[in-house]
Amino acid sequence: MQQRTVHEVTSNQADIYENLEETVIRYVSTEYRRPFAEHTVKAFGAADAFVRAAGRPVVLDSGCGTGRSSFALAARFPECVVVAVDKSEVRLSKSSSLLCDKDLLSRILFVRAELLDFWRLALSANWNIVHHAVFYPNPWPKSSEATRRFHLSPVFPAMLKLSPVTELRTNWEIYAREFAEAANIAGSAMELELSVNFESFVPLVPETAFEEKYFGAGQKLYRTMVVRKD
Ligand SMILES: C[S@@+](CC[C@H](N)C(=O)[O-])C[C@H]1O[C@@H](n2cnc3c(N)ncnc32)[C@H](O)[C@@H]1O
C-alpha cells in the first residue's frame, strides 16, 4: 500500500496574525448575532436533554472528527458525560465503530452541529462544562483566512466563557501561540482571571486520528491550556 505524505502546515504568516489584538478586542466589545442554524438548534435540544437527564458535569469535545478523542476523554473524566460535536456526518459516522466499552459508550453523545452556534447555545443554557477539548481544529493557515480561526472569530468570547478549562491542541505552532495571545487579550478585556500556558508536548498515546497522523509523521505537537482562576 502507498504511504500518504503528511505535510507540515505551511503559511504565508511567519508569526502570529498582525491584527490579532485589534480583531480580538473588536469581538469582545460587540455582540455576535449570527442567527442559529436550524439543524444546530434541534441538535442542541437533544444534547441538552441528554445532559440534564445525566445530571453530570460535561466535557465538550469540539470538532471531534471520528470521535477517538471522545472515547479518551470519557475514560479520563469518569464522573462526566462527553458531548462530542462535529459538523461532518461522514466523520461522525465512523465514530461508533470505535466504541466497545458499554460504560464509556453510555456517557458519550455524538452530535452533528455547527460549533459557532452550539457554543453560544450551551453558554445560554448554563451547561457545567468542566473541560473543553479543541483538538486539531482546521488551521486556516493563509493570512487572508485568519479570521476563520476560532480565536479570531466573533465567537471567541463565548468560547472562552464556556468552561474554566480550554485545551487546544495543534500541529501548527503559530496557531497555538495565537490562541494563547488571543486568550490573554480577551481575558483581560473581559476581566476574566486566566492562566494561559503554551507548550510543545509528546503524547503518551495519540488520542485523536489527526494526532496519530501528525505524531507518526514526526511532526511537533503543541498545546495551549487556558484555565480560569475564579
Ligand atoms: C482537522 S479535523 C480534527 C478532528 C479530530 N479532532 C482529530 O484530531 O482527529 C477538524 C474537525 O473539526 C470539524 N469542524 C471544523 N469546523 C467546524 C465547525 N465550525 N463546526 C463543527 N465542526 C467543525 C471538521 O468537520 C473536522 O472533523
3D architecture notes:
There is one protein chain. This protein is α/β, with parallel strands linked by helices and 230 residues long. The chain has a single domain (20-228), classed as Vaccinia Virus protein VP39 (Rossmann fold), CATH 3.40.50.150. The protein has nine helices and seven strands, in the order ααβαβααβαβαβαβαβ. Strands 3-2-1-4-5-7-6 form a seven-stranded mixed sheet, with helices on both faces. α3 (68-76) links the parallel β1 (58-62) and β2. The termini are far apart. Bound molecules: S-adenosylmethionine. S-adenosylmethionine binds next to β2, α6 and α9.
What is the CATH topology assignment?
A: Rossmann fold
H-E order: HHEHEHHEHEHEHEHE
For the record, what CATH class applies? Alpha Beta
Indicate the structural class: alpha/beta
* Portion in strands: 15-25%
Low-confidence segments: none
Radius of gyration: 17 Å
Return the domain count. Answer: 1
CATH superfamily: Vaccinia Virus protein VP39
Report strand order across the widest sheet. Answer: 3-2-1-4-5-7-6
The total count of strands amounts to 7
The global form is globular
What is bound: which ligands? S-adenosylmethionine
pLDDT averaged over residues: 95
Per CATH, the architecture is 3-Layer(aba) Sandwich
Largest sheet: 7 strands, mixed
